[in-house]
Write a structure and sequence with these properties.
CATH architecture of the largest domain: Orthogonal Bundle
Number of domains: 2
Bound molecules: zinc ion
Number of helices: 4
Strand order of the largest sheet: 2-1-3
Largest sheet: 3 strands, mixed
Radius of gyration: 40 Å
Oligomer: single chain
CATH topology of the largest domain: Helix Hairpins
Strand content: under 5%
Order of helices and strands: HHHEEHE
């Protein structure tokens, strides 16, 4: 086999590992980020539910205060009704106001009860979310530690491979062919070379003309697949 091709094949082996590691280095933190967001969304949601419950309870408190005032008014009116010297017209007006006050009390109490129920519901929701967060936290911490360890390992491996790559590159590959290889590596996601088996490029699975195979077999220059442009080799 062509000496350059041989060197490119070794380089390709290293680059394949480098690409794989780089993908891993991107994927792992991304995965962790997604998990972290899920947890922090739950925390935000539970805080939101708690705040809503608190707001509802303070509204209930206001309603209770206004009911107290209304009851005082009711008692005062009832007292007025029983006082001496109340004529029929005034009595009727007092009684009318008493009815209105009673209606207002009952309406306010209904509102208060509804709000209290809603506040309880929000409280339960908040507690459920907090329980889930607490339960999922150890899993997340474990994943986080694992990712950190994997990243450290991958980074060290990548450094070693980069050094290996520099050695291979400086070996026997002429500049223009190295440039061609690097361009292909980038365009073809880390696979710049493709094996040719029975006249079929194993990179894109398209058949190549026989004359290209003859050129390749002669081993003088590099031959690219007419379809995917990868540098071809035969074992
Ligand atoms: Zn091809």
């Amino acid at each position: 086999m062509n000496q350059t091709l041989q060197a490119l094949l070794s380089l390709q082996d290293t680059d394949r590992q480098i690409y794989r590691l780089r993908a891993e280095l991107q994927r792992l933190p991304q995965e962790l980020k997604v998990r972290h967001k899920k947890l922090s969304d739950m925390v935000t949601m539970s805080n939101h539910c708690r705040a809503e419950a608190q707001h509802l309870r303070s509204q209930v408190k206001e309603i209770e205060d206004s009911v107290t005032i209304l009851r005082m008014r009711q008692r005062k009116l009832e007292k007025e009704c029983n006082s001496v010297g109340v004529d029929a017209a005034l009595l009727a007006s007092y009684q009318h106001e008493i009815r209105t006050v009673k209606d207002n009390i009952s309406e306010a109490e209904d509102d208060g009860l509804n709000m209290l129920a809603e506040a309880d519901e929000k409280q339960v929701q908040a507690e459920q979310l907090e329980t889930t967060v607490v339960a999922e936290r150890p899993d997340f911490d474990a994943l986080s530690a694992a990712v950190k360890a994997e990243l450290t390992e991958a980074t060290a491996k990548l450094e070693a491979l980069d050094a290996q790559r520099t050695n291979l590159q400086s070996a026997t590959i002429p500049e223009d062919q190295l440039t061609l290889y690097k361009g292909l590596l980038e365009r073809r996601e880390g696979e710049a070379l493709a094996e040719l088996t029975d006249l079929v490029c194993q990179g894109c699975f398209v058949s190549i003309p026989r004359n290209l195979y003859v050129r390749l077999a002669r081993g003088v220059d590099l031959v690219q697949c007419p379809s995917c442009t990868r540098i071809l080799y035969v074992r």
